Amino acid sequence: MRLSLPSAILGLVLGSILGNPAMAAPDKMQAVEVAPDGTLSVQTRPVPKPGAGEALIRVRAAGVNPVDWKIASRRVGLVPGTDVAGTIDAVGEGVSGFAVGDAVLGFARTSGSYAEFAVVPVNSLAKKSRMLSFEQAAGVPIVGETAYRALHEAGRIKSGQTVLIHGAAGGVGSAAVQIAKAAGARVIGTASPNNHEFLESLGADQVIDYRSQRFEDVVRNVDLVLNTVDSQTATRSLKVLREGGTLVSVAGAPDAAGCAAAKIHCTRPNRDTGPSNADVLARLMELADAGKFSVNVDEAFSMADAVKAWQKSRAGHTRGKLIIKVNAGPTMKHQ
Ligand SMILES: NC(=O)c1ccc[n+]([C@@H]2O[C@H](COP(=O)([O-])OP(=O)(O)OC[C@H]3O[C@@H](n4cnc5c(N)ncnc54)[C@H](OP(=O)(O)O)[C@@H]3O)[C@@H](O)[C@H]2O)c1
After folding, report:
1. Which own/partner pairs from 330-334 qualify as long-range (CB within 8 Å, at least 24 positions apart)?
2. Cβ neighbours of residue 286 closer than 8 Å, sequence gap 6 or more
3. Distance CA 201, CA 198 (A)
4. What are 308-327's pLDDT values in tens digits?
């Protein structure tokens, strides 16, 4: 059907109101930038362009991870953030399996995710489960992938095993509790008392208040430990594992001689082997579809308040995930 000029203009106006997925991205966007003093401010920047094998995402939410502020000093002038959820605005050459308008989540390693638009390689991209909001989906990539690789790849988790998860209320920990339960394990988690009900709601079978109890005094013969706290916690965990058990640490290594003496396999997730990030995210979205995996959004911040999100993340007591809400133009008609 041919459109007259006025109806074409009307179409564009309606498209911008209703959220036409095919609408082209603008040239400029608002994005959070790291200043030399380590603070954050919202700046106008060019919209990044997707290269071959990449997609341009119209960002709805970005996830906050400790690694964002840990590497901030090396990112002066750049946009922080890796975790992203939004809709596909454009795809680069050679991209198949994804289309403009798809609701997705992924790792924005090329451009930074605290921005209205971000570029994600399709080998780090997956379609979002309808069971998760964009804010929840933005809290999945780094922690979900880390927990999945830690338990399934490094930890070789098996149904019926007992798994101890340190820092179980945090981003990695809360993802790990759910992934371990879905794998059929018995899950013990350490957390502050105010997070015990939360851990039980995720399916934890036993919770330990690390502030009032030494976990070594209450746990024995564990098959697998996932440590997300620090290297001392990793080393102390050698005592609770059965001989031949596995200790996976993503937050500091345990004492290597202690691992050998106790006959414990001490390891960490290896990203050079196993499934791609896209495959891991797709598996997590299958778990979400099945009602076995979700994300607790502890607090959502605007881009202008990103520095407050970092202050809260640095405090080290996040329950689930901290999120940056982003509003790039009209609302898209996707879940
Ligand atoms: N190597 C990797 O691949 C990788 C990937 C992702 C993250 N990491 C690292 O893993 C660590 C955790 O990341 P995250 O994103 O999960 O952090 P997070 O969301 O900030 O969570 C930290 C959690 O630790 C808990 N916690 C603090 N001290 C504790 C203790 N002594 N015992 C038990 N729980 C304690 C807190 O809960 P309470 O309020 O209950 O204390 C909080 O929920 C960070 O150091 C991060 O850099 C590594």
Report:
1. 330/16, 330/17, 330/18, 330/19, 330/23, 331/19, 332/19, 332/21, 332/58, 332/60, 332/87, 332/101, 332/103, 333/18, 333/19, 333/21, 334/21, 334/87, 334/101, 334/102, 334/103
2. 129
3. 5
4. 999 999 999 999 999 999 97
Q: Are 166 and 228 in contact (CB under 8 A)?
A: yes
Q: What is the DSSP letter of 239?
A: G
| pLDDT at position 8 | 38
Testing ligand 1's pocket by substitution, the residue of 164, 196, 228 carrying the most ligand atoms inside 8 A of its CB is 228
Is 174 close to ligand 1, i.e. is its CB under 6 Å away? no
251 lines ligand 1 (CB under 6 A): yes
CA distance 228 to 234: 9
The average pLDDT across 125-140 equals 98
Q: Is the CB of 249 under 6 A from ligand 1?
A: no
Is 80 exceeded by the pLDDT of residue 12?
no
Lookup result for tokens 């959820």? 85
What domains sit in the chain, N to C, each tagged with a CATH number?
22-140+295-325 (3.90.180.10), 143-267 (3.40.50.720)
Contacts for 160 with CB less than 8 Å, ≥ 6 apart: 184, 185, 186
Whether the predicted model's global pTM rises above the 0.85 cut: yes
List, for residues 224-274, the tens digit of each pLDDT value. Answer: 999 999 999 999 999 999 999 999 999 999 999 999 999 999 999 998 899
- SS3 state of residue 244: strand
Closest CA to 91 of 52, 61, 65: 52
Letter for the amino acid at 5?
Answer: L
Q: H helices within 168-224, ranges in order?
A: 171-182, 196-202, 215-218
* b/e burial code for range 99-130 (CB count within 10 A of at least 16 → b): ebbbbbbbbbeebbbbbbbbbbbbebbbbbbe
Shortest CA distance to 278 belongs to which of 172, 57, 177, 127? 127
Distance CA 76, CA 222 (A): 44
